[in-house]
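Minutes, project huddle
Topic: does the predicted pose make sense with calcium ion bound?
PN asked that the exact inputs be recorded in the minutes so nobody has to dig through chat later. Recorded below.
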Amino acid sequence: MKRVFVVEDEQDIASVLVDYLRAGGMAPQHFADGEQALQAALADPPDLLLLDVMLPGRSGLEVLRALRLRGSLPVILLTARVEEVDRLLGLELGADDYICKPFSPREVVARVKAVLRRAAPAAPGMGLQLDEAQGAVTLAGQKLALTRKEFQLLAVLARRPGRIFSRPQLLELVYPDARDTSERVLDSHVKNLRRKLAAVPGEHEWIRSVYGVGFSFEAP
Ligand code: CA
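Predicted holo structure (tokens), as shared on screen:
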């Protein structure tokens, strides 16, 4: 059973999350204080932390920073406002996902399961190969005809599977010389890239849209 720490000082929210996670077949443990959660996570790491940003003791961000110094324990940040997500992404702390309040507990459980799946060791031969020297991409043995920008976009995303990149970050990383490239251009490159990836049979969705934030590369 997967152990999930629910680090949340609002008792009502925490209780609902604990109930849903338990019903979802996980073993949740509740902490109302950042420092206690950090010490417990360092002493006996859980499989995942659901971590509220605003906490007494130590803030969620301080807890995340301290955890990142020790390893790559999966963390989903809970935040009060969608506008805050861009700021959090900018901090480069490397959360695995972000959930904005108010949220549906059902959605939280689904996202927890998705992050746990991603955190599992990657299956060998995932089928997508990037040859960065040649700028060539092969999926399930088929060569994909990508433009240079589509290739760069895919390469940036695929180097950090599961990591969410905001649109401004992607613009900076993929089009560093084109100061005037718009988010609309980026979105159309993502759309084309998805279409080309989807042309090869297989159910997997390689590029995930994170509503209001950006995109991430999802390993199968
Ligand atoms: Ca809080």
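Observations noted during the meeting:
- The longest helix spans residues 183-198.
- The chain has two domains: 3-119, 128-217.
No decisions taken; revisit at the next huddle.
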